[in-house]
From TrEMBL:
Leader peptide range in chain numbering: none
PANTHER family listed in its UniProt record: MEDIATOR OF RNA POLYMERASE II TRANSCRIPTION SUBUNIT 16 (PTHR13224:SF6), THYROID HORMONE RECEPTOR-ASSOCIATED PROTEIN-RELATED (PTHR13224)
The protein's name: Mediator complex subunit 16 C-terminal domain-containing protein
Domain Mediator complex subunit 16 C-terminal: 385-511
Organism (species): Metschnikowia pulcherrima
Annotated Pfam families: Med16_C
Amino acid sequence: MREKLFSLSLQDKLTVPGRLKAVHTAISGSIVLLINEDSTIIPFDRTNWSIIAQDSQIGANMETDPGYAQPFRPKSINSLLDCGFQLPRLQADSAPFLFAISPNLTGVVHVKAGANETPFFSVVKRPPRELDVKLLSLAFSHTHAHACYSNTSSDDLMALIQAEYDNLADVTQKQLLVQTTIAESHSSINFHLNTFNKESVDKLLSNPPLQKLLSLQLTMSDLGHRNVSGDIAWIVLSLRSTSFGIMFSLSSIYRQMSKKKAIDDNMEDSINRAECIILLVGSVKWFIDLLIYLNQELLQLSYAKTNPEQSIITVENSVVLPLLLSKVFLRECDDYITKELSSKWTDRAKLLQLEQQLFCSGEVPAELLPVAYTIIDRFSANNHRDPRLSALYFYDSRWLNVGAAHREYYDKHAEQNAGQSEPTKVRLQYSATEATDALRKVLISCKSPIQSGGTTPMGRYFNSTYKLKKCVRCRSVSLVSDPLVFDSARAIGLWTMVFQRNCICGSAWVNCGSDDSPK
């Protein structure tokens, strides 16, 4: 085989002020960062090797140039730096330091070398000037879309969004930031429910970027107190984990039974199958109770048509109507809904806007109100003589913690602990001493708020000191180890092992202190 000869030749040189400490790339290699020893960071666009304009330059132009009287708008967006954000200087002096660039270029983690202190996360800064919430949302949605398709974590982006949300003083601007960020992120990943065929449910539950979108929607809804939008995100995330658990368990049972003859089946095999089935009980019950609750909402909406002021659940705060109208919960959409949508709106942009109002905002658009009332009337006509209506009406589904009627305890609990960033207020708190395991959908002993306890060494996930873990983003809690019923001589591969390190929302688990562990 003939060897190839390569030569190294100097093409150009780049001169920057200061003494260079390190060179890093970001955003899939499209940006080169030069980090100086004085902790300043200079970003370069790799396409033309030009310095990305820092906002101090933009601010100077805005003051002197009448053309900058309007809020700054970039021609294109490749990163947050194109939207006016700038990388901060990490420290005031030139002492040696250690650092790490966040995956989405939203900030830098840094600490002085040899210092006995916690590393600090400095987010990119947006200088004070006339705020363009739309541009801010576009910047966040573009960064989120890049995280989706590059399979990188977006926790650093959520930290920046939280900081920008807290910096806004106007409540209207805060709500606009939440709403537009969710909608623009939905558009950025090019996810359209209405373009799918009859297998839309399967695609909905298996689309990887959708998990990140739902996690963003869940977190942003918490920030803006948009309960219906958050409920929709949580329901679909839980549907994903439930369907995965059922498929994984059935596959494991079938694979085990197909490898052996019936005569060779032993007690250990029976224990494995039993544990697989028992661990699914909570998820299956959650799914059944969710169906019951959705029917409860339809029943209450049918009763509330005559006296809407006497009902907690209305068309405006209903969860079931956006779910049904956005075709999330239907394999084959009702003929009436399909006919109405296809006949009235052929414009794809209009359909996407309606979908975003339903799925992302949890609102029933005025154009779809007749369809919503028709669904309620159809349900009432089909079930008004059913003798099981009283059992349906009084069925206890509070533990789901979805819907306007079931938020009383959580809202009261959240007010008592408002303003506390640590410890964490548990999302699915059922009572003062119990919460719902977000993964297994069973009640566990857990007090809220809950304190972090630490992490386990790499490669040794289970530690008997920690019995609970919490999600760093969605505030869910779960058991560290599976509550096995039978004694087994060897480890059993259950479906929950896929979620050992990550929550169903995609973010990371952290262990909780032993004081909060279940007895």
